[in-house]
Amino acid sequence: MLESQQTGRCIREFRAQLARLYEWFEYYSALIRVGEGSTLPLRGQLLGYKARRPLGVVLQITPFNHPLLIAVKKLAAALAAGNSVIVKPSEVAPLTVLELGPMTQEAGIPDGVVQILPGAAETAKQLVESPYIRKIDFTGGTRVGTLLSEQAGKRLIPITTELGGKAPLIVMEDCPVDLAVNEQAVRSSTLWQEEVFGPVVCVVPFRDDAHAIELANDSRFGLGASVWTADHARFHRMVPRIKAGIVWLNTHHRNDPSSPWGAIAPTGNFSGSGTASLGANPSGIGRENGLEALNAYSTVQSITINYADHETMRSSEDWFGPADKGAASSQPPVRYG
């Protein structure tokens, strides 16, 4: 399987993962069909409503670890919102994303609406600096995500970043899960504090729920966490205090088109040091998946309609007409707002 060959990950994993990709396109196509608007509570004889409009050309920069899944997650939401998309896949794992291009043509997407542009750092630099790009969506490392956020800030365009994470697991004493433990991690170590792409687990015992939450939050990341317990009430008491944008109970790393995927900025102190330059939320900003991702690929347009008759409209809208002091008490005031 091509996805396994270019990443080195297990074929079994990708067979399970890639079999679900169609769900993202189904979910977002359903959202735009059933979405309903709302009217605004304006004063007087006015009708107001909101409409969402596409941003234009958006740039998506995808990583090496889940090339096709992450590209599809981003692409489905962007297309559903009405945008044109440039996808720059990872230079070390671009092959399956390149195969996605012809598939979009076969599905009926007009030529040019989806463009796959492989390349390394220089390609990304030219794309993010282009005046035609109206949004950046990046999944990757915290340092590059910080640089892209600075570039987006200079141009005053929105950016979504899904960056690093640690994903602590809180395993309670009543959980039927066995962990093989070799050693106790030191909380100030790089292994505890930094994202590690490898089969490594740090294990530290905790005294009570408060201590467990302290350990789980002892990280500059705030992406995901899980709790393993048969006591659901206990879980619900703990969740509000866990600084993670995604929290699972008795499972881990579950992903669904409807479930928002993103981080909560960590608060307070943590054991690591020397990381202040990486920003306040090194796990990223914004959300993938869900209605949140669809809305992030559009902007809001507010529409106000005056349906008053001509005489009423003239009396209330004419800011520069002659003032009649004698009739001031009987005339409606000229409106403002």
From TrEMBL:
Which part of the chain is the Aldehyde dehydrogenase domain?
2-183, 187-303
Annotated region Disordered: the residues are 316-337
On the tree of life, the source organism's domain of life is Eukaryota
Q: Which residues form the signal peptide?
A: none
Which SUPFAM superfamilies does the UniProt entry name for this protein? ALDH-like
Composition-biased stretches, type Polar residues, lie in 328-337
Give the molecular function GO annotations. Answer: oxidoreductase activity, acting on the aldehyde or oxo group of donors, NAD or NADP as acceptor
PANTHER family on file: ALDEHYDE DEHYDROGENASE-RELATED
Q: Which family is annotated?
A: Belongs to the aldehyde dehydrogenase family.
- Protein name per Swiss-Prot or TrEMBL: Aldehyde dehydrogenase domain-containing protein
Instruction: Supply the source organism for this entry.
Output: Kalmanozyma brasiliensis (strain GHG001)
